What does this fold into?
Amino acid sequence: MMEALRQQALIAELFGAPPDEVLGCAQQGERRRRGLAAYRANAAALAERAIAARHPCLAALVGDETLAALAKSLWRAEPPVRGDLACWGDGLAAFIDAQPNLAEWPYLGDVARLEAAISQAEAAADVETQPATLALLAEHAPDRLRLRLQPHVHVLASRWPIARIHAAHAVHADGAAFEAARVALALGESDAVVVARRGWRAVVERIDAPNWAWMDALQQGDSLDEAQAAAGANFDLAAWLARALGAGWLWQAETLSSRRSTT
It folds into this structure.
């Protein structure tokens, strides 16, 4: 609790709160004032580094100058509320969508969303898969069951080929990956993806529309029959279960009566 208050106090001071209004501290000291002044002076650079670390593909797409301007503007519009800048920047995608000067690249917001999902996947807690709970599928009606995905799993759908754009700007991308992204953009193709961790690194995998609808419904906490309705009558649950278990997407099955205690 005290650490959270200390961080809030620091952030308040960085953005101009009078020193005697922060945690009731009337005496700050000349050294502290100089330190805060230096921190404010370097805020733009700190913001840029924080965004670049979380969004390398976006940085490659827009270039250093535009990224710096974006980071600085976001810092001013949505200043951090915690001392850890790794936790700042969740509003970047929506902020990008609202910038008229970036309208020429309408996929940038979704690229930022994808990279945020990657960051969240790599930082997510580990939970042990519970395959024995799948026995519930034979014991309860689909409207009384749901499947839980691992905390590191995220699904995202975009009208743009974001998985291929991201792959084209990966560290070890080759000309073929860049050409695939270029062609997909030219043809107006879209991507739905699942982001999941393998080991300590997140992996982006394209999925088709029924699989995305199914997994999105699961992520929303829907029952199996609601998820099936979203995915369509031809969705193959058995095939998905095999794939999900092999890829490490699935956490457990549970009855809806346990929803309150597990969400």
